[in-house]
Amino acid sequence: MRPSGRAPDQLRPVTLETRVNRYAEGSCLIGFGHTRVLVTASVEDSLPPWLRGKGQGWVTAEYGMLPRATHTRGRREAAAGKQSGRTQEIQRLIGRSLRAVVDLKALGERQVLIDCDVVQADGGTRTAAITGAWVALKMATDHLVAEEVLKQSPVIDQVAAVSCGIFEGHSVLDLDYEEDSNAEADSNFVLTAQGGIVEIQATGEKRGFARTEFDQLFNLAQSGCAELFRLQRQAVEA
Questions:
Q1: E-strand stretches of 9-146
Q2: The Exoribonuclease phosphorolytic domain covers which part of the protein (predicted)?
Q3: Scanning 47, 59, 197, 233, which has its CA 20 to 30 A from the CA of 157?
């Protein structure tokens, strides 16, 4: 039995609240159980210098945790004067995940900046951030279409992410903190609605794991993402 009482293939309750920021072109407060991430998407006409004049846009992301997102207060990284390696890795992952489903030429010479702020962490902050970021991005590009800045949305597919792991010998979907901190193996899957794999991060924490176990984790991730895709569509259409 999982500590939460969930079935092995059961997601935590997922919520996607949109338009939570009146200024951003797209915004979403996503919840994976007790994990909460506020995501905003901001459109700017400026581009990084290395992209100027190339006839395409850019999507990038920043990620951070609020000081009391965890059990004890953490120091703001701005106060420390530098980002941790973990923060840099996660925000690069979010950016890669979103660019995988965007036609950058159709976006034109502008960029969308995604800000992901973890309000409360209980495992799976990066997967929640990616899933919520797609919603905010889609809303921002739909805004550009509605304002006749773009003829059509450059978002060509959905992307979502979910964690899976081996906990007490069983393959389970969407680990919370208690499971993640005691997992024998854990993984993060970033998948597209059309069946593409954007990224897989898989680690044996306490032991190596077999190919058959990996296949079980992958199957769980596919079923979990299918539900996340449905919830994403429901959120942007509301």
A1: 14-18, 26-32, 35-44, 58-65, 111-120
A2: 10-140, 157-223
A3: 47
131 assigned binding-site residue: no
Q: Give the mean model confidence (pLDDT) for residues 185-199.
A: 97
86 is in an annotated binding site: yes
> Could you tell me which of 58, 56, 76, 51 has the C-alpha nearest to residue 66?
76
**33 known ligand binder:** no
Q: Which residue has the tokens 């060509």?
A: 156
Which amino acid is present at 142?
Answer: D
Mind giving me the DSSP string for 203-216? EESSS---HHHHHH
User: How do residues 48-90 score in pLDDT, each as one tens digit?
Assistant: 889 888 999 999 999 999 988 988 898 888 778 888 888 899 9
Instruction: Centre a 10 Å sphere on the Cβ of residue 60 and count the other Cβ atoms it contains.
Output: 16
